[in-house]
Amino acid sequence: MNAPDASTRVVSFAAIERQVNTSLPSNDGGAPPSSIADARDAIFQLGALAGQMCALFLSAPHDPIECVERPSADDNPFWVGASPEKERVATKLGEVFVQLFAMAAVLGIDLRTSVLKKVELNGKKYPVDLCKGKSGKYTDYSRHTGITTTEGQCTVDSPTKTSSHELEDTETVEGITILIRNFAIERLWSRFHTPRNIALALMGEVGELAELLQWKGDEGEIALSEKELDKIGQEAADVSIYLLRLADVCHVQLGEVAMQLSGAGEEKKSSSP
Length: 273
Hints:
The structure is a single chain. The chain is mostly helical. It has helices at about 15-25, 35-55, 75-80, 85-105, 110-125, 130, 140-145, 175-185, 195-210, 225-250, 255-270. Helix 9 (about 195-210) packs antiparallel against helix 10. It is globular and about 50 Å long. The termini are far apart.
């Protein structure tokens, strides 16, 4: 499970970003709107889509008790097969992903870089030898890692994770999905990474992202410090990581769905009078 399936369409983060940015409304300089109200609106929209996504999981199959590795051909037929209900879930996951790119554009965040930096930080927060098979928080390991709620979290000056070998792909949705999958498998987290579990975890991360702008008001331009943007980038990365993992365990080709949806948005914009 170290490479995309041969039938999988490989889609880069950059390709989705370009397509999403083309479909966004722009100011006179050609860039997306950049007021604090625009940023908050983008998070409102993300929250709305995440809520719609969660509503779909009310009728999804309940999670199995345990699985050695996920995704698996032995997963529930609802997820492995094709159906209108599964298609609705796939479309909503794609809409959430597209909105993450739209929000990142408004805030001036590079979503791929934020995700890779957070994966690197998570590797330090959750050492393999300490957290295998455990679902505890990173603070359970603070005595060993030195990373606490107030120390060791900033990624402003952190290098972006790069490929550890020539076969590792850190440019595409599929490659980074595999990176996140292997991260979970190494820590024996597959039994926790069930569709409904991950959907709830994603919803929680959207809430943490919203907290960062909840008291900023709607007047004026975006005026955030480097550290504030880093925190926002990390929370956007957390949402993205859970979304990529959710799509993975639900057998959804997230990159392909996102390209189709963002392309449809671009076509709609170009056909407007």
